[in-house]
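ok so dumb question maybe but i'm new to this and my supervisor (M.) told me to 'just get the structure for THAP domain-containing protein 4' and walked off. so i did the thing. is this what she meant?? sequence i used:
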Amino acid sequence: MSWCVMTPADLNPSLVPLDWLLGTWESDEPGEGCFPTIKPFHYTETLTFSHVGQPVINFTWVILGAINFKH
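this is what came out, is it supposed to look like this??
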């Protein structure tokens, strides 16, 4: 059996001005969407900003229908 231990990478100096952005952000209240061809709907959002030590930020955005959202 092998194990992989991940250690956090040092933040690239060029990203220091954006370090406040790193982490996971979730919507406080469900959003509301509507389009002419469908019924109005509610949704929640989760955004994650991360890095691996390079001068680039990884961005993930997940949207779920509010009815499917579980705390």
